[in-house]
């Protein structure tokens, strides 16, 4: 288990590795200052980057139907991101070949879109994407119930989204990462699900992944950073219906549950404010 992995870096990548930037983007400067506090101007740009992400995910959620392929969704997402003046954050990042991660059912994260991967009624589909706009990133993920899903799948998706907001509600200057993690963990366990510990959320801004690691479970193995106004965090709980443990497939990207149980995930890019938070990737504002 590597709880120091951020959610998008491939599992074989360690914290010491230097990430590559997506195609067409300038090389990011190594962040030597730890957790960055964004200026008002930077925050405004991140609002725009995040609005692009929210728009794309909202449109994908409305257009997904059985018979489409995950490759279809990837082409659509890239087209829309570029139409809005941004570039896909994920494409080329650590060599990832697509603009979205599309993970179905027991696939936990990093599913590679394909024209051969058909979406079927009853599937639990996770779509994660990011946009790079004027030097800053927005990052978000949704889980989509495709057509009529089982009661078990519907409940898992519901609790996963609730867990995200339980964590977000703990965000305000003066609170700590453990406040977020504890709220998420308690909600997940109350409903009998497990929190995936192999990956964490992260800071986001000039780089797709920045400090701090935003964890979803109580731990002393990661720094319990105090939140300050101007921080921008990608909060992203991942829930499994069975075991919390995962394994990596031969493509070196797709991560699946070890017991073939369903998995669900939601993510928002969130700004810490003096009195609370602002959800930058809020799809309800689009």
Please provide a brief summary of the model:
This protein has 286 residues and is of the alpha+beta class. The protein is built from four helices and 15 strands.
Explain how this protein is built.
The chain is an alpha+beta fold and 286 residues long. The chain has one domain: Alpha-Beta Complex (Creatine Amidinohydrolase), CATH 3.90.230.10. The protein is built from four helices and 15 strands. The chain has helices spanning 40-63, 70-83, 151-168, 177-190; strands at residues 87-88, 100-104, 107-109, 124-133, 136-145, 194-195, 201-203, 210-214, 232-235, 238-240, 246-248, 255-257, 263-265, 268-272, 277-279. The strands form four sheets. A five-stranded antiparallel sheet has the order 8-7-9-14-15. Strands 1, 2, 4 and 5 form a four-stranded antiparallel sheet that branches. Strands 3-12-11 form a three-stranded antiparallel sheet, with no helix packed on it. A hairpin with a 2-residue loop joins strand 4 (124-133) and strand 5. Helix 1 (40-63) packs antiparallel against helix 2 and helix 3 (151-168) packs antiparallel against helix 4 (177-190). The radius of gyration is 17 Å and the shape is globular. The N and C termini lie far apart (38 Å). Residues 10-24 and 26-32 have low confidence and may be disordered.
Helix and strand element order = HHEEEEEHHEEEEEEEEEE
Rough outline: globular
Portion in beta strands: 15-25%
Largest beta sheet: what is the strand line-up?
8-7-9-14-15
State the domain count.
1
**What is the rounded distance between the termini?**
38 Å
Treating each run of at least 4 consecutive H or I residues as one helix, how many helices? Answer: 4
- The name CATH uses for the topology is Creatine Amidinohydrolase
State Rg.
Answer: 17 Å
Instruction: Let me know the CATH homologous superfamily.
Output: Creatinase/methionine aminopeptidase superfamily
């Amino acid at each position: 288990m590597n709880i120091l992995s951020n959610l998008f870096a491939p599992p074989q990548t360690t914290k010491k590795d230097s990430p590559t930037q997506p195609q067409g983007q300038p090389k990011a400067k190594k962040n030597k200052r730890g957790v960055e506090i964004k200026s008002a101007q930077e925050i405004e740009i991140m609002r725009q980057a995040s609005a692009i992400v929210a728009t794309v995910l909202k449109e994908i959620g409305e257009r997904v139907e059985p018979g489409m392929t995950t490759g279809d969704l990837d082409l659509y997402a890239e087209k829309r991101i570029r139409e809005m003046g941004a570039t896909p954050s994920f494409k080329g990042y650590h060599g990832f070949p697509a603009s979205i991660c599309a993970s179905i059912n027991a696939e936990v994260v990093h599913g590679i879109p394909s024209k051969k991967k058909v979406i079927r009624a009853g599937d639990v589909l996770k779509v994660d994407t990011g946009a790079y706009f004027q030097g800053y990133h927005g990052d978000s993920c949704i889980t989509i119930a495709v057509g009529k899903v089982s009661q078990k799948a519907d409940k898992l998706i519901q609790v996963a989204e609730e867990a995200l907001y339980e964590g977000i509600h703990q965000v305000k200057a003066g609170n700590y990462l453990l406040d977020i993690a504890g709220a998420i963990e308690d909600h997940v366990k109350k409903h009998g699900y497990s929190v995936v510990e192999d990956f964490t959320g992260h800071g986001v801004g000039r780089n797709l992944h920045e400090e701090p690691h935003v964890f979803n479970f109580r731990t002393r193995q990661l720094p319990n950073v105090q939140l300050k106004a101007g921080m921008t965090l990608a909060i992203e709980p991942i829930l499994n219906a069975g075991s919390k443990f995962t394994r990596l497939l031969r493509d070196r990207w797709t991560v699946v549950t070890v017991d073939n149980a369903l998995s669900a995930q939601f993510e928002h890019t969130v700004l810490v404010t003096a009195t609370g938070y602002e959800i930058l990737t809020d799809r309800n504002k689009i």
